[in-house]
């Protein structure tokens, strides 16, 4: 018995050695902060006054449902996600289709298209802020030459929100392109050639062959973009600081404002927990849809 038990432990130990570092890393940088945030979300936890900290139950969560600014920030965050990500997906998909062929210079074009993805969010936000500057910005100058009057794009609530979304589309659509192109090159060319012999048109091949085969790739890309979009902060903070008139105060910025401007860490943690729950619901929906389609 002892020999068999020692053998089982010996067989499992190499696997445990490989998994253990990852488990420790995930526990330290992901699980522990989440548990800690959930814990202090039930406390009145001012950052600068330790004497007034205390357990208040679900009061922070009740306050959230009565906070109009929270719902406004959540509306802006979801609007950002449901506008920017589909546009990025569509652009990435069709550009990947266009470049999924060999011609002179195609490798250089593919490489150049990926450059915006590698720009740091802070630099991207700063660059767009400078380009939209009404007096000397490059985009403002170009629009002026087209007859559009000089406008303070980031000082107007409507155009500032649109500018934040356009900046994200510019920076992240190549991410979708990269994923979809990697999926496209793995589709057997014999399937497309058979469809051509059967007289299938372009949209028939796209809808009946390419999209079904790319569904796992697209789902993975959407999940990663969703996670990134829910935590968007630095580029918006640099571009607008959440203004004007809270027009670009996405939920991530509102959480930051509550934690580090008003020092309500407990309240900010409660909003962070709700943001995690929303992320899990959307991610679970996408994964289930993908599994149902696959089955």
The gist of it:
With 295 residues, the chain is mainly alpha-helical.
Structure write-up:
This protein has a domain at 66-265: MetI-like (MetI-like fold, Orthogonal Bundle). It has twelve helices and two strands. The protein has helices at residues 2-40, 59-65, 68-98, 106-113, 121-131, 138-145, 157-184, 189-197, 202-230, 234-239, 251-260, 265-294; strands at residues 43-44, 54-55. The longest helix has 39 residues, at 2-40. The two termini are 43 Å apart. The model has no long low-confidence stretch (mean pLDDT 88). This is Carbohydrate ABC transporter membrane protein 1 (CUT1 family).
Count of DSSP H/I helices: 12
Q: What are the segments in which pLDDT stays under 50 over at least 5 consecutive residues? A: none
* CATH superfamily heading of one domain: MetI-like
Instruction: Briefly note the CATH topology name of one domain.
Output: MetI-like fold
Q: How many strand elements?
A: 2
Radius of gyration: 24 Å
Termini, distance in Å?
43 Å
Going by CATH, the architecture of one domain would be: Orthogonal Bundle
Report the principal-axis shape.
Answer: globular
Question: Main β-sheet, in a few words?
Answer: 2 strands, antiparallel
Based on secondary structure, the structural category is: mainly alpha
CATH class category name of one domain = Mainly Alpha
Average pLDDT, rounded to a whole number, is 88
H and E string: HEEHHHHHHHHHHH
